[in-house]
Specification:
Serine Threonine Protein Phosphatase 5, Tetratricopeptide repeat; 2 domains; mainly alpha; single chain; about 220 residues; 12 helices
């Protein structure tokens, strides 16, 4: 980062600051993460049109800091700003990501129909670009909504299917999605007897990817 500044390289400096901010967010050091990401964002914005995509990505990760820190309105404004920026260059991956985060805010607030609609939109975009991690994160989102609604069988089947499909392709959920997944898994274990959870889990594990997508979209 210091080398980038000495060489007058704003792109690498902004990227380094953003990466450091991501790391601090994962560590749970939210004030430090915010400071680093805001420094990165300032540099991207000073770059003008050349820094537009970098600004959008940094806004997303700043939104994740706000989401992790339960600052809902700040997170929402950051994701919405990102969506406005990304519609122009057409970065579908990050557009889908931002939409999914808005869905996450919606289900945390109990606005399940809005959350479902946003998850559907994000899923469609991730399927369009062939992003398997994004698809899995959307399916995990449908599971999160189901658990929040008290639909524990549906939530368990979706969570088991997500775990199985992730293992099959050798990828993991992003840290922020994994936190939500583990939180809801703990809730299921608290609400359901072990043998009942195991029964629902087995049904989810047996589903193919096409079957789990169809299952996620039904009743929505």
């Amino acid at each position: 980062m210091s080398i980038g500044r000495e060489l007058g390289d704003p792109w690498n400096t902004a990227t380094a600051l953003r990466n450091l901010g991501l790391l601090e967010n994962i560590r749970g050091n939210y004030p430090e993460a915010r400071t680093l990401l805001e420094q990165s964002l300032l540099i991207w914005r000073e770059m003008g049109p050349e820094g537009k995509t970098g600004s959008a990505w940094t806004l997303i990760f700043l939104g994740d800091v706000a989401l992790n820190h339960y600052e809902a309105e700040w997170a929402r404004s950051l994701y919405e700003e990102t969506i406005t920026i990304l519609k122009e260059p057409g970065d579908i991956n990050f557009l889908a990501y931002s939409i999914r985060r808005l869905a996450q805010l919606a289900w945390r607030e109990g606005n399940y129909q809005k959350a479902i609609a946003l998850c559907k939109k994000s899923l469609n975009l991730n399927q369009e670009v062939g992003d398997p991690r994004g698809v899995m994160a959307c399916l995990a989102g449908f599971a999160d909504i189901a658990v929040a609604q008290g639909k524990f069988e549906r939530g368990a089947r979706l969570m088991a299917a997500v775990e199985t499909q992730l293992s099959a392709v050798g990828i993991r959920l992003l840290h922020i999605d994994q936190i939500e997944y583990e939180r809801n898994l703990a809730l299921l274990r608290a609400k359901l007897e072990e043998k009942i959870l195991d029964k629902f889990w087995a049904k989810g594990k047996a589903m193919s990817l096409d079957e789990v997508i169809a299952f996620a979209l039904q009743e929505t």
